Amino acid sequence: TVAAGTEVVKGIEQAEADFIYELDPDAAAGNGHLGSYFQDEAGQWHSYNQGAIIDGQVSNVDLFLNKGFKEGINIEKVSFTKEDIAQIKNNKNHIYIETSKEQDGNLAKKAFELKETLGQRKYRLWTNSCVDSTQELSKAGDLLTPLDVDPRPNKYFEKLKKLQNLNDHSLVPRFSVQLK
């Protein structure tokens, strides 16, 4: 049985348009890693991860001083079943956000733009980390994106969770107000 809001593609149920934050709380010496999953306009899911490509040892001082390292971005096609989505929605290390097809198109466009411009930026703990990169995606999708002054993904994820708790089902799209 296929639930409402899904379609079967090659035997795999595809959920409607959505975005997922994913936290690996144990990565980066217990400070965490923030990645995401997004759908393109056709409904294909992709994983998105950004980080530093480091050869050899790096001191915490070098990271703290915001020294630049080679940036890596990985985007891979993935598939989720209805059961996968249900597990993700109940997993403490994921935040599931309902999005529109227009938002999906903007999210996908930004993700692939960031990957295409690799080499033009450096990974920097304070200004271009996995948190900053994921924020660029969420901004492109017009999703609420809290300011981060602490570069640790675990801390940023706590902020996202607090925002999610303000709304019963997901983070809400950001609305702009024009004053005359």
Average pLDDT level: 78
Annotation field: number of helices: 6
Low-pLDDT runs: 1-15, 168-180
**Overall number of strands:** 8
Give the SSE layout.
Elements: E1 7-9, E2 12-14, E3 18-24, H1 27-30, E4 33-39, E5 45-53, H2 60-64, E6 69-78, H3 82-89, E7 94-98, H4 101-116, E8 122-123, H5 130-140, H6 153-166
Antiparallel strand pairs: 1-2, 3-4, 3-7, 4-5, 5-6, 6-8
Can I get a quick summary?
The protein has helices at residues 27-30, 60-64, 82-89, 101-116, 130-140, 153-166; strands spanning 7-9, 12-14, 18-24, 33-39, 45-53, 69-78, 94-98, 122-123.
Summarize the structure in words:
This protein has 180 residues and is α+β, with helices and mostly antiparallel strands. The chain is built from 6 helices and 8 strands; from the N terminus they run βββαββαβαβαβαα. The chain has helices at 27-30, 60-64, 82-89, 101-116, 130-140, 153-166; strands at 7-9, 12-14, 18-24, 33-39, 45-53, 69-78, 94-98, 122-123. The strands form 2 sheets. The chain has a 6-stranded antiparallel β-sheet with strand order 7-3-4-5-6-8, with helices on one face. It has a two-stranded antiparallel ribbon with strand order 1-2. A hairpin with a 5-residue loop joins strand 4 (33-39) and strand 5 (45-53). Mean pLDDT is 78; it is low at 1-15 and 168-180.
Key phrases:
single chain, about 180 residues, alpha+beta, 8 strands, about 30% helix, globular, disordered N terminus
